[in-house]
Design a protein that fits this description.
The chain is of the alpha/beta class. It contains 16 helices and 10 strands. A 4-stranded mixed sheet has the order 8-7-9-10, with helices on one face. It has a 3-stranded parallel sheet with strand order 1-2-3, with helices on both faces. It has a 3-stranded parallel sheet with strand order 4-5-6, with helices on both faces. It is globular. It binds nicotinamide-adenine-dinucleotide and magnesium ion. Magnesium ion binds next to helix 7.
Length: 377
């Protein structure tokens, strides 16, 4: 899901490099019909979904002669994951839109390679319980969570004391609030170490991405909030660490390349070969670590607040953030207003402590509408 995005394209590279292990059954995209068609010609899936219905005819016309089934619309996205021939669903679409197809894939007992962190932020309790009930594993694709998962191999019975998620700090590391008032979209879209989709790149600049990852880690590894720490590590070589109850720490390291965690999630428990460039200690010399500045980058502490409140609060926070990021990318709000908008929606949210699935959809809709109203009137 999301084959035309940053993770999706890299996943297809991994698949192409390991054609003895993997083949593509389904590809889905929001609206990039041209790329979806090109990918389908190369990978010959059984079916494709284009969520944007206005692009349906174009995709259908191109792929019909190749005997590839073509579906359109968001509902098809949620249905197509149930196909018998699928073993693993890679959730590489962005935002809340990932929740419904992921839930359906779990109900259909498909293993999940999870890139779409928003699904666990929004409804981590519901989704992890559903996965357990259906015997489904959630293999992390996010590099930090893949690092933790790799550190835990062979340690399943050893309790975790804490985990430490590393953060690059983003393009504005070291700056203070007053230096961030006039940040432009172009500046925020320039990440120092990773090339990613626009939404996660802005989340990395505000440190909301790390906040989302803290909540993602809570659910993936069944941790208490106080067991999850973050540390800024600008070189992005140490991808995260686990500390055990004897005080020993394990870290997973390597050059930043998302193909590695994608490949580990798809190939688990096997480590498949790769020719990615290798890290060279002599060349790097120093790896540095520093505390995150949560006064300047408020989103990280807002995410901790949302996690501590629990219930539908992280869902409201996530929706407000999705709207805030899109308004920022649309030049409707300034960089620092992203955190302000998220905070104001959290303050006004009537949190439901024991939500049903529908409560997440209602909360998401309420938070989006309220956030938009607040800015556009
Ligand atoms: P992206 O914007 O590059 O790609 C998103 C993909 O999802 C595209 O194929 C798009 O067509 C599809 N999509 C978007 N909205 C959709 C919708 N409403 N319905 C259906 N399909 C939709 O994003 P990305 O950077 O590849 O990130 C994807 C997910 O992976 C995000 O949740 C992100 O947080 C996570 N992630 C990304 C990276 C990275 O390096 N890019 C790293 C870790 C985690
Ligand atoms: Mg990450």
């Amino acid at each position: 899901m999301g084959s035309t995005g940053s993770i999706g394209k890299q996943a297809l590279e991994v698949i192409a490099n390991h054609s003895a292990h993997f083949s593509v059954e389904v590809l889905t995209a929001q609206s990039n019909a041209e790329l979806l068609i090109a990918q389908s010609i190369e990978f010959q899936p059984n079916a494709v979904v284009i969520a944007d219905i206005t692009k349906y005819a174009q995709v259908k016309e191109a792929l019909d002669p190749l005997n590839i089934k073509v579906f359109g619309g968001a509902d098809s996205l949620a249905q197509v994951v149930e196909m018998d021939s699928i073993d693993v669903v890679l959730t590489a679409l962005v935002g809340f839109a990932g929740l419904k197809p992921t839930v359906n894939a779990i109900l259909a007992k498909k293993q999940i390679a999870l890139a779409n962190k928003e699904t666990l932020v929004v409804a981590g309790e519901y989704v992890t319980k559903l996965a357990r009930e259906n015997g489904v594993n959630l293999y992390p694709v996010d590099s930090e969570h893949s690092a933790i998962f790799q550190c835990l191999a062979g340690e399943w019975h050893n309790p975790i004391e804490k985990i430490i998620l590393t953060a690059s700090g983003g393009p504005f590391r070291g700056r203070k609030k007053e230096e961030l008032t006039q940040i432009t979209k172009a500046q925020a879209l320039k990440h120092p170490n990773w090339t990613m989709g626009a939404k996660i790149t802005i989340d990395s600049a505000t440190l909301m991405n790390k906040g989302l990852e803290v909540i993602e880690a809570k659910w993936l590894f069944d941790l208490k909030p106080e067991q999850i720490e973050t540390i800024v590590h600008p070189q992005s070589i140490v991808h995260s660490l686990v500390q055990f109850t004897d005080g020993s720490m394990k870290a997973q390291m390597g050059l930043p390349d998302m193909k590695l965690p994608i490949q580990y999630a798809l190939g688990y428990p096997q480590r498949l070969e790769s020719d990615f460039p290798r890290f060279d200690f002599a060349q790097f010399g120093t790896l540095t670590f520093e505390k995150a500045d949560t006064d300047t980058f408020r989103c990280l502490s807002l995410a901790y607040d949302a996690m501590n409140v629990g219930g539908t609060m992280p869902c409201a926070m996530n929706a407000a953030n999705e709207i805030a990021v899109s308004l920022f990318l649309n030049d409707e709000i300034k960089f620092l207003q992203i955190a302000e908008l998220v905070e104001s929606i959290m303050e006004h949210h009537n949190c439901i402590q024991q939500p049903e699935l529908q409560d997440y959809f209602d909360t998401d809709a309420w938070a989006r509408e309220t956030a938009l109203q607040r800015i556009r009137g």
